[in-house]
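ok so i was messing around last nite and threw this chain in just to see what happens. nothing serious, just curious
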Amino acid sequence: MGLQIVLNLIIAFVWMFLYSDWSPQRFILGYLIGAILIGLLNRFWPHDFYLRKLWAVIALLFLFLKELFKSSITVLGQVIRPRLNIRPGIFAYETELKSDWEITVLSCLICLTPGTLTMEVSHDKRTLYIHAMDIEDKGEVVRQIKDTFEKAILEVTR
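result:
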């Protein structure tokens, strides 16, 4: 993937040299042409096209921001009520993630989302113990984490 980025930058600079134009517009045009060429020759590379990974990272960021906004509104609604109507609890979450980096990112995303906290990761790195402020249905919370954060992390890393 790093080789693709370097090659794309080289193509952009060569494009600028060919036109003897050092403007940012010429560089951007050369970069886009390089990205198209690398994308067309994608089947000859051992790794995926790097812009797909970049898009997956951006999608993960927007997913986190969406979940952060939703959970913040929920927590704010719980705090504003004169009487707390919550059911806090701890549950075990079985993950399909394997590497330390993937598990760390998932744990951080869960901790940064208001109302949830990753308390511990098991020694075999397959189970996360999560505290949630309000658990109506454990299965629904597990499905939500699996369908949002875990799926997005898998798209970035694999």
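not much to say yet. The longest helix spans residues 50-80.
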